[in-house]
Design brief:
The chain has ten helices and eight strands. The protein has helices at 14-26, 74-80, 103-109, 147-158, 172-180, 182-199, 204-224, 229-236, 242-250, 256-274, and strands spanning 5-10, 29-35, 50-53, 67-70, 93-96, 120-125, 135-141, 161-165. It binds 1,4-dihydronicotinamide adenine dinucleotide and (2S)-3,4-dihydro-2H-pyrrole-2-carboxylic acid. (2S)-3,4-dihydro-2H-pyrrole-2-carboxylic acid (A1CAB) binds at residues 99, 176, 180-181. Its EC number is 1.5.1.2.
Length: 276
């Protein structure tokens, strides 16, 4: 991977943009063409390795991507993707980060001969901490993905954080619910802690500062420590102390677990619906 690949990025919004920054910083892509109606993001303007195209018919002449990264919203994938059929060839792998969209849907959108063995597709689910190189991505490939294409996709995803590969594509729906959407749950917890702190008498600004610092610090502690989360929790919890009083509420039968079960189930269902 020392030379970097030729990459076509379709959709350069929040996730595509974050990943592009990571690839360029890591040198995983040596040439990137970006198709994005809003134009190139500020962070890559002037970078000689990056150029813009208005669509599949506007790619630089002779540009043959090793990988086409699909980072548009799932809702527009069906209209956007057929335009990229001419790029299907044995040496090119299509790497999707779209929620819900299945490998089967990409196979049919990318051509009538979609079952052809040369149509290499990797479906993946990253998350927004990718913007600071701390993403968590889960990926699954179809049978056509060669070992070198898998290595390439792994390097691209690893440039923005950790990567796990699975064999069973059905896992991508609960994966999306846990790690894809998960950062939003954590940010909501910060908001909820700050509001509760305010209700308990703290000035709003101080309550938010405490909530942010606590979640960020606890996250970093967990990141740096191999200690299981339950043990980190127990280390905060003095017998019959303040934490115990709060955890008696949060760990009650109607506490956080049933709420989280319902939230993850709802997101999983939505991911399954987006496939249709
Ligand atoms: N935001 C998140 O936390 C995560 C998002 N994803 C997936 O990433 C994909 C992108 O999501 P975001 O970056 O959040 O959305 P976004 O709206 O920020 O980015 C999508 C981009 O696609 C562009 N676009 C629209 N039509 C296009 C076309 N015809 N050709 C090229 N680009 C086009 C839009 O202008 C926009 O910049 C989605 O499929 C989503 O499911 C995956 C994991 C996490
Ligand atoms: O909310 C969504 O649909 C996307 C996928 C995971 C995170 N954001």
């Amino acid at each position: 991977m020392s030379e970097g690949c030729a990459l076509l990025l379709v959709g350069c919004g929040k996730m595509g943009g974050a990943m592009l920054d990571g690839w360029l910083a890591a040198g995983t892509a040596s040439r990137v063409v970006v198709v994005e109606p809003s134009g190139l993001p500020e962070s890559v303007r002037g970078n000689p390795a990056v150029s813009a195209a208005t669509g599949p018919a506007d790619l630089p002449s002779g540009f043959v991507p090793d990988v086409v990264v699909l980072a548009v919203k799932p809702q527009v994938m069906d209209t956007v993707l057929p335009g990229y059929r001419p790029l299907v060839r044995p040496g090119t792998v299509f790497l999707s980060i779209a929620a819900g969209k299945t490998i089967g849907s990409f196979e049919s959108l990318l051509g009538a001969d979609a079952a052809a063995p040369e149509l290499s597709i990797v479906r993946s689910m990253p998350n927004t901490p990718a913007a600071i190189g701390r993403g968590m991505t889960v990926a699954v490939g179809n049978a056509a993905v060669t070992p070198s294409q898998r290595t390439l996709c792994d390097a691209l995803l690893r440039a923005v954080g950790d990567v796990a590969w699975v064999e069973d594509e059905l896992l991508l729906d609960p994966v999306t619910a846990v790690s894809g959407s998960g950062p939003a749950y954590v940010f909501l917890m910060v908001e909820a802690m700050a509001k509760a702190g305010e209700a308990a008498g703290l000035p709003a600004e101080l309550a938010m500062r405490l909530a942010r610092a606590t979640v960020a610090g606890a996250g970093e502690l967990m990141h740096q420590s191999p200690t299981p989360a339950a043990d980190l929790r127990k280390a905060v919890t003095s017998p019959n102390g303040t934490t115990q009083a709060a955890l008696d509420v949060l760990m009650a039968g109607d506490g956080l677990q049933p709420l989280m079960d319902r939230a993850i189930a709802a997101a999983t269902r939505r991911s399954q619906e987006l496939a249709r």
